[in-house]
């Protein structure tokens, strides 16, 4: 009996895991965290989430947005990564289209899959998971990294099909992938308990991520507060380029800041859930789609998601064959 009472008490926050799709809200050269106010910023990003995404994003974003491209309609957060381009042997570049993930409702326009899990999919490790606070933001990875930084949370997967998840690679795949390429970004989940941001957007957090979605390590005393494990999956439809793979066998894909290896892969997050919605979800038992329709999160249809957009503030050609990566014209041949 004692055991039963204990397990029921813990069950209240033992299992919640959110996984949901977000369509693309914008693809443009803005970087409100790293280069706030700069129009255009140095490289192209693909962004999902609330329509208050802008060159400058101060304060509580849930108060500025009026719609979101994500399934959960109380979620006005923004999530973004660099964009992938194909580099032809003749020197021209073409943007690689995004495609929706498997296991999500059909018709989502590009975008990403977002996860907020506890210690892992199935357990909080008997710790309270504290939701991010209004004004919270962070980045993971850095475009200036040129070697493996020992973060097993930043990975590439060569897709045989949309369901492929292994092996996870620290760099771009070295051969054509029949189902496209997935980039994966796991954020740190240990917070210092004080700062909503830090000058480098990283030192208020501490990373104990292990590979894939396996349970993260314990939080250190300097960053004792366990927050949701945030992760992005982005699927790039590289298949139209497979027949143009270079004769010398080298990887032809490049991230929008000129990285053809992949060690500089990075991602950004600005919190924007309304009120206590994320905390309620983390304290519940719901998993994936079962969290929708008010159980406990309000949700919206794919049509409503796709209808939310942000007008680009940067007028430049991003599609078609380009003679340089947008913003990288002085970088030469990389
Ligand atoms: C972005 O910021 C500019 C300047 O502050 C403002 O005029 C514009 O309405 C904002 N756009 C969005 C989508 O919030
Ligand atoms: C490179 O090849 C592509 C695909 O065939 C073509 O559309 C593009 O114009 C070429 N670029 C140059 C500089 O020749
Ligand atoms: C709780 C809350 O404010 N929910 C709102 C989330 O945003 C949608 C619009 O996208 C509103 O309809 C909800 O009322």
Protein traits:
six-stranded antiparallel β-sheet; binds 2-acetamido-2-deoxy-beta-D-glucopyranose; disordered N terminus; mainly beta; 334 residues; 3 helices; five-stranded antiparallel β-sheet; single chain
Shape: globular
Care to count the β-strands? 17
Q: What amount of the residues lies in strands? A: 15-25%
Domain count: 1
What would your notes on this structure say?
It is a single chain. The protein has 334 residues and is mainly beta. The chain has one domain (18-327). It is 7% helix and 21% strand. It contains three helices and 17 strands. The protein has helices at 2-11, 277-282, 302-307, and strands spanning 18-22, 24-28, 45-49, 78-82, 84-87, 93-95, 98-99, 112-117, 137-140, 154-158, 181-186, 190-191, 205-206, 225-226, 229-236, 253-255, 267-270. The strands form four sheets. Strands 1, 7, 8, 10, 11 and 15 form a six-stranded antiparallel sheet that branches. Strand 5 and strand 6 form a beta hairpin. It starts with a helix and ends in a 27-residue tail after the last helix. The protein binds 2-acetamido-2-deoxy-beta-D-glucopyranose (3 copies). The site of one 2-acetamido-2-deoxy-beta-D-glucopyranose (NAG) has 4 residues, from loops.
